Amino acid sequence: MNRIDIKRRNVVDHRKKQFADPAYKQTQYPHRLNFYSTPPTADITLEQFEQWAIDRLRILAELEACSFRNKTPAETALHMKPLLDKYLPLDASSSGHSQLQAQRQKDHYSHFILRLAFASTEDLRRRFTRVETMLFRLRFQADDSRERAAFVRTLNLDWEPVSEDEKRELSPQLATTIGFGYGKRAQQVMDEEWCKVDWMRVPDLIEGRKVYVKAGKAYVPGREQQSMVLNAFTKRLEQALELTARALPRLDEDDRLTPILNHLSKNFIAPDSSYTGSGMAIESAEISARNIDNLSQHFPMCMNHLHRSLRRDAHLKHFGRLQYTLFLKGIGLNLEEALVFWRSSFNKITDDTFNKEYRYNVRHSYGDVGGDSNRRSGGYSPYSCQKILTEHAPGPGEAHGCPYRHFSLENLTTLLRASGVTDRAVLQGVKEDTESQKFHMACNRVFEHLHKTELKRAKDEGVMTAAQLETIVHPNEYFKRSYLLKNMNKQKQQVDVKMEG
Amino acid sequence: MEVEPPVAAPSSPLVDEDFVMVEAGEAQGAAKDANPAAGPPPAQVAADEDMVVEIQQEKRPEIKLEDLFDGMDSDDDDFQSSSNPLNVKEPVEEEAYDPSFELLRIYYQRFFPWRYMFQWLNHSPVPTNDFKHREFSLWLHNDAVMRYQSYTTSDLFRKDVLRLMPRRIEIGPVYTADPRDRKTFRNSTAFVPMAKELCFDIDLTDYDDIRTCCDKANICNKCWRFTTMAIKVLDTALREDFGYHHILWVYSGRRGVHAWVCDKQARTLQDHQRKAIASYFEVVSGKAGGKRVNIRRPLHPHLSRSIDLLKEHFQHDVLETQDPWASPEKADALLLQHIPDPDLREALRKKWDASPGRPSSSKWADIDALAQTGAVGAAFDPKDLLDAKQDILLEHAYPRLDIAVSQKLNHLLKSPFVIHPGTGRVCVPIDRDNLDGFDPLNVPTLQGLVREVDAWGGGETTDGGVAGAADGGAGGGDGGGGGASSQEVKHVQDWEKTSLKPYIEYFRSFVTALMKEEREAAVKRERVEDGDVEVKVESLDF
């Protein structure tokens, strides 16, 4: 018996497998959702290859734009529905659609094509994982609950169900995490399907204290399953992309695919393009350390607040300095001027302290010092609204962040009033925007209010096209637009030239 | 090897093994070997002199070794002066902290617990990648920071520290490869941080808006209570909620405290998981002056437990000791602003304006008293008031963390047992079972240690010790006595003669427990692997 066994095992020896005929089998798609764990193996045409990839890319770019504009999940779903139906339809199994398998095949293949296109750099991989996860989430939420449950079962995630006894015992604690006070709705706890997982599997639930944890196990109610599935999805995709990246060099052999893939990945860079300082500087403006006070009237609230804090305290904490330095770099303040600016702003400290503790950081932001990659890329790019909104929420004594998001309403109103926004309707609008988490809208609303007359004139005279007046999603864009509008008279000539170029 | 391990617990195989390992690698062992053989035990009075002699003996071979490795070094001058006890003692008598090399050298040579530090980071008596690939960064006296230092053994670590005399040592993550080789990897994924203890940092400056006794870098025992509260809450939650056992609390030397969660699982957490756990503990957020506690109701079990833990402290250590709402402005910003009912707010304000200087604890009691007498509006909901009071309590007593320290795997944190350059205090571990007994103003200092070891008499007779110290100081101890060291003195380490002893002993027991668990886990793994091997052998037979 053993002998035979060994021989059989030899058949799957990888050295022999290499020369064996590949035994491909047609992939079946029993579920609408896909974890993309098996790569596709069938042949497709080159046209399909490109077209499917472009279709999917269109969806992903649009999704990213939605998150960029801080759309709520519901709004995003609404916005995406027609696009999804057009470019990447995916119907439920129950719909009995004739194209079911074809749809799923396209979804499957396009995903893997884009993997090839976006595996090359760390940055692309991260963004690809993020948007793919967004797409998956969108579909997961829209999925029929029975089909979703069936799909989740096939994933083999090691969740441990919570026994009835344990539920009963922990019911006071568990009740608080599903929104019911102790005692009132013990029954709700018993009705819910709970499962126990290592807390590391559900970091986002831990982060918001949304689940009860005990001895390292998180008690997740059935309705929060989504987050665990999504995490598993992200994690697997990240790992798979790493592997793809390692395999990429071998792809060079096929000279038909490489150009397509390069083209695809370049397209993906466009919407989130980092804000390069040189291209965005306004030539006519005098951007120097001593002129910053004057220019600060064109700053968005976040930078305005940083500037005020800096002038008030003669100091800013780390993330404040970082956010502000990069912004100033973005508006065209060069390194020498930046050092002059920070040195003169921190007027309560000695030269020695400044040189020791701050000088390096400013130079690092400009890419003057630091590792190779930092110097080559000229330091960090100025922060976009997206980054300011989502990363490093300000703590005590810190002035960075987005006032619309991180301030209490009273503080925000005070700041706005101090900056010349006194119109009740505008303030009310800002309040509503921030309450519904549309921080961009609030910022743009303030911008429109402060530049009311100029905007009207610009429109009348056709100085700026509609594209140049779309929603602002970058503080430097805010500055640039504000500066150009306010200096329209002086600048008209130059602006015309610039905008065409 | 006749030599006893310098530390107790000779029964432990771990200690023995380590000792042999270290000794085999270094010539230093030879010098120690020679010691006990040299002459009869001297009189008690001469104990201190012996000690001085001993230092020299320890040092001589070392310097020679260094010379061998480093070629011509200018260390000789330092060596000469440091071996002269007169030079050592002068700054001590001045009572001022002198960050000179001399004191530091003595500290690193004689007090710093190298062995336990090594075991703590290595998790095994034999050097593993946990230690070898660990980043250390050394802050030198000219303010340069040497990052990405790594050492294959604890002895090389010690030697390098003695060579460079950093005023501060920071500990970074374990990398996938030796940090010194980091430049040799072409792609960035081959050199990434893999593991580090989960760290927390509490800094009393974050409490400035509610501390009334001190501000900025100053602390006293009153405001230290904030730290005590924070440790209690965090420690309990880390143990009960997250199931961690090996949590080391370390005094940062001036105004804060660090936590090192050393469980294997905690060490391998990824950045997003660290961020999650840090946010789990982030309750007081935003800028001072606004509403800083925004939490959902019903209260998460962690928060309701924390409130129970903090209630007592809030009453005593915050309201009575700190009296944070003494001035009307403070009372308004920290207290009244959070009272949900406008009528009640007005009533309170009126009452307090009428009696200026009313203590905070009375003001706190006033809230409920007035609410009960009906000085409230029509829409008053007692539940809102309770919620508001809970928020206020949390704002004043819940831990305020420097979240950046916990979030990133590759964040460096000051090592335990280094000397704080500003205060001269040793960053000692805090025993969580004796939290209330810890006095940050009374921890060992560099000068104090040197004094204590000089005053140590070798036995219980302190008077003899003092005499010996005076003797040793005056005598100059230029090694005249040779190797005349007593056997009893021999295996008493210098740190055991000082107030550093309980701290190092606590650290030792912490490390031992950690290593024990790691070893048990390793044995379990081995068993599984053994199983595999057996299967393979079987199949090969056929």
TrEMBL record, chain A:
Keywords: 4Fe-4S, DNA replication, DNA-binding, Iron, Iron-sulfur, Metal-binding, Primosome. GO terms for cellular component: alpha DNA polymerase:primase complex. Binds 1 [4Fe-4S] cluster. Residues 296-479 form the DNA primase large subunit C-terminal domain. GO terms for biological process: DNA replication initiation; DNA replication, synthesis of primer. It holds the Pfam family DNA_primase_lrg_N. Its cofactor is [4Fe-4S] cluster. GO terms for molecular function: 4 iron, 4 sulfur cluster binding; DNA binding; metal ion binding. CDD domains: PriL_PriS_Eukaryotic. DNA primase is the polymerase that synthesizes small RNA primers for the Okazaki fragments made during discontinuous DNA replication. Belongs to the eukaryotic-type primase large subunit family. This is DNA primase large subunit. It comes from Parathielavia appendiculata.
TrEMBL record, chain B:
One of its GO terms (cellular component) is alpha DNA polymerase:primase complex. Residues 25-45, 58-86, 460-490 are annotated as: Disordered. Residues 68-79 have a biased composition (Acidic residues). Residues 27-37 have a biased composition (Low complexity). Its EC number is 2.7.7.-. This is DNA primase. SUPFAM superfamilies: Prim-pol domain. Coiled coil: none annotated.
